[in-house]
C-alpha cells in the first residue's frame, strides 16, 4: 500500500479530487495517510475530517515568533509525516517552500501541483498573472503541471505531467480559473497514478 500525505493551505479542491479517486477505486493501492495544513482556516481540513483522514494543523508562525528557523519547522514536520509511514508527499496548493531539511527525508517522493507551464509564473496567483499577460497580448495559452520537488526552487523540478490550456478570447478570469482547476484535478490524480505505476514496473524489472 502506498501511504500518501497531502499538504494543503486552502480550499483543498485538489485534495478532494484525490479523495474521490481513492474512494472511487481509481487510485488502487493508495491510502490517504495524512493531510497537513499550515493554515487554520483551510477548507481542506474540513474535507479531510469529513472523510476520516488524519489531519494536522502545523503553522510556521510559532517557530518564527520564538526565533526558530524554517529548517527547524521543516525538519519537525518531516518527522511528523514520517511517523505516519508516508511513502509519497503531494503538495496540493501547499504555499510553503521546502528547505532540504524536509526534502532530504523524502528523496524523489515529493510532488507539487502548479497552475502554469514549466518555467512560467512561479509562486502565488499564477492564473491571475497568466490572465493579465494574456490581456496584454503576451500569451494565448497557459497550463498546468505536476513536477517533482528536488530542491528549494519555487514551482520547478522534473516534470511528471503537464497540459497546455488555451486561453479563449472571451474568457473571463473566473472561467479560466474554473477550467484550469478542472484540469488540475484530473492531472494530479493521473500523475500520482503514473508515478506509482512506474515505481511498480521498475520494482518488477529489478526483481527479474
Ligand atoms: C491550485 O490551483 C494549485 O495549482 C495552486 O494552488 C491551488 C490550490 O487549490 N498551487 C500553487 O499555486 C503552487 N504554487 P485547491 O486548494 O483548491 O486544491
Secondary structure blueprint with pairings:
Layout: E1 2-8, H1 13-23, E2 30-37, H2 43-50, E3 55-57, H3 61-65, H4 70-83, E4 88-91, H5 100-103, E5 110-114, H6 126-135, E6 141-148, E7 159-166, H7 173-206
Parallel strand pairs: 1-2, 1-4, 2-3, 4-5
Antiparallel strand pairs: 5-6, 6-7
Helix pairs in contact: 1-7
Bound molecules: glycinamide ribonucleotide (GAR).
Glycinamide ribonucleotide (GAR) binds near residues 12 and 155.
Radius of gyration (Å)? 17 Å
CATH class: Alpha Beta
Strand content: 15-25%
Tell me about the biggest sheet? Answer: 7 strands, mixed
Bound compounds, each kind once, are: glycinamide ribonucleotide
Tally of DSSP helical segments: 7
Distance between the termini: 21 Å
The secondary structure category is alpha/beta
Domain count, please report it: 1
CATH topology annotation = Rossmann fold
Q: Would you tell me the overall average pLDDT?
A: 97
The SSE string, one letter per element, is: EHEHEHHEHEHEEH
Q: Shape from CA axes? A: globular
Helix content: 40-55%
The CATH architecture designation is 3-Layer(aba) Sandwich
| Uncertain ranges | none
Strand arrangement, largest sheet? Answer: 3-2-1-4-5-6-7
How many beta-strand elements? 7
Q: Name the CATH homologous superfamily.
A: Formyl transferase, N-terminal domain
Amino acid at each position: 500500500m502506498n501511504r500518501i500525505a497531502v499538504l494543503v493551505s486552502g480550499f483543498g479542491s485538489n485534495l478532494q479530487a484525490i479523495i474521490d479517486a481513492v474512494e472511487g477505486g481509481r487510485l488502487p493501492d493508495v491510502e490517504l495517510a495524512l493531510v497537513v495544513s499550515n493554515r487554520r482556516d483551510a477548507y481542506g481540513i474540513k474535507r479531510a475530517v469529513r472523510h476520516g483522514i488524519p489531519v494536522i494543523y502545523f503553522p510556521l508562525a510559532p517557530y518564527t515568533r520564538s526565533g526558530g528557523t524554517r529548517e527547524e519547522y521543516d525538519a519537525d514536520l518531516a518527522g511528523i509525516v514520517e511517523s505516519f509511514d508516508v511513502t509519497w508527499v503531494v503538495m496540493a496548493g501547499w504555499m510553503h517552500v521546502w528547505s532540504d531539511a524536509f526534502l532530504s527525508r523524502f528523496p524523489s517522493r515529493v510532488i507539487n501541483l502548479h497552475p502554469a507551464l514549466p518555467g512560467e509564473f512561479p509562486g502565488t496567483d499564477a492564473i491571475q498573472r497568466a490572465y493579465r499577460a494574456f490581456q496584454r497580448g503576451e500569451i494565448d495559452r497557459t497550463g498546468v503541471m505536476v513536477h517533482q520537488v528536488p530542491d528549494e526552487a519555487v514551482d520547478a523540478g522534473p516534470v511528471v505531467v503537464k497540459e497546455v490550456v488555451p486561453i479563449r478570447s472571451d474568457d473571463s478570469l473566473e472561467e479560466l480559473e474554473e477550467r484550469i482547476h478542472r484540469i488540475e484535478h484530473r492531472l494530479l490524480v493521473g500523475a500520482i497514478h503514473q508515478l506509482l505505476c512506474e515505481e511498480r514496473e521498475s520494482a518488477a524489472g529489478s526483481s527479474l
